[in-house]
Amino acid sequence: MALPRLLFVSLGGTITMVPSDSGGIAPKLGAAELVASVPALKDVASIEAHSPFKLPSPSLTPDKLVDVAGQIAKAFESGFDGAVVIQGTDTIEESAFLLDLLVPGDKPVVVTGAMRGADAPGADGPANLLAAARVAASKEARGLGTLAVLNYDIHAARFVQKSHTALPSAFLSPLTGPLGVVAEGRTHIYCRVGRNPTLPIAGGGPAPIALVKVPMGDDGRMLKDLPRLGYAGAVIEGMGAGHVHADVAPILGELAEKIPVVLSSRSMTGPVFTSTYGYAGAEIDLLKRGLVPSGYLSGLKARLLLGLAIRGGGNSAGAFTPYQ
Ligand code: ASP
């Protein structure tokens, strides 16, 4: 039987990094070299390898990921069965969510990376690549949208977060846990998520959205300047269930009259509340002033959804409904 066809797209990251003249590690390897370094991949899939970028993931941008989404969608139309995106772990939770929002259909897109460099003792890249390929080639992963596969865990893009700076077990889905695991070379899915509506790739990159974490005692003075700085929207990471100092609430209300403002939480996980706290600066007050709740989406993910929803003058209303 013919092996599944997978597209491998490498963007860079620690998984591609080896010691450089700068004294530290830096991106060097491309997708073809990574694939060649894991001989077992040839039994999993027929692989076409591309390396559009060799960047550390802090230098990736949403626009670049929109391009990658376009390449994957085209590959799926031409008969590929799945895609593996290789990149730095610092921004995997954002890239995976962008791809989830943009790549339509049931074929699996799997994002992976590594916490240890390619030359490091105990490098986790090869095991992650093999696990990602197994998931992308599997029937079980169909219909789950974009997944992040690291350390044998299979995470849904909407829930996954990087939770540690160093450990190979850095990736968690704190709200739900992972959807499944790769064990004995097989993809095991224990719970499934439904696909949420995708947005058109052709619409281009997200509009610029400010992401503001609210610290204790801050008077919100920077918020007034966001429209003047060219931001088309803002996501506010409020305290706890979505709260700010009472004096900041009217400033946010004025801001929401000018640009869409989404309320998320600076807490690690959990939904933003909509109907519990009645004091000034709490969620009932802020929603009355025109803010939109992000549901269970983190600030990082809410920023990407808002930016895609309002590009080209689109409306944010409704984009967050599936995430409540
Ligand atoms: N700083 C690296 C990056 O995101 C970290 C990694 O890949 O693990 O490119």
Write the layout of secondary structure elements.
Blueprint: E1 5-10, E2 17-19, E3 25-27, H1 31-36, E4 46-50, H2 62-77, E5 82-86, H3 92-102, E6 109-112, H4 125-136, E7 146-150, E8 153-156, E9 161-162, E10 171-172, E11 180-183, E12 186-189, E13 209-213, E14 233-238, H5 248-258, E15 261-265, H6 283-288, E16 292-293, H7 299-309
Parallel strand pairs: 1-4, 1-5, 5-6, 6-7, 13-14, 14-15, 15-16
Antiparallel strand pairs: 2-3, 7-8, 8-11, 9-10, 11-12
Helix pairs in contact: 2-3, 3-7
Aspartic acid binds at residues 13-14, 56-57, 88-90, 113, 115.
Overall radius of gyration: 20 Å
The level 1 CATH classification of the largest domain is Alpha Beta
Ligands:
aspartic acid
Judged by helices, strands and strand pairing, the structural class is alpha/beta
**Largest beta-sheet details:** 8 strands, mixed
Count of runs of 4 or more consecutive helical residues: 7
How many DSSP E strands?
Answer: 16
Structural account:
With 324 residues, this protein is an alpha/beta fold. The chain folds into two domains: 5-189, L-asparaginase, N-terminal domain (Rossmann fold, 3-Layer(aba) Sandwich); 207-323, Rossmann fold (3-Layer(aba) Sandwich), CATH 3.40.50.40. It has seven helices and 16 strands. The protein has helices at 31-36, 62-77, 92-102, 125-136, 248-258, 283-288, 299-309, and strands spanning 5-10, 17-19, 25-27, 46-50, 82-86, 109-112, 146-150, 153-156, 161-162, 171-172, 180-183, 186-189, 209-213, 233-238, 261-265, 292-293. Strand 6 (109-112), helix 4 and strand 7 form a beta-alpha-beta unit. The chain starts with a strand and ends in a 15-residue tail after the last helix. 49% of the residues are buried. The model has no long low-confidence stretch (mean pLDDT 97). The structure holds aspartic acid. Aspartic acid is lined by residues 13-14, 56-57, 88-90, 113, 115.
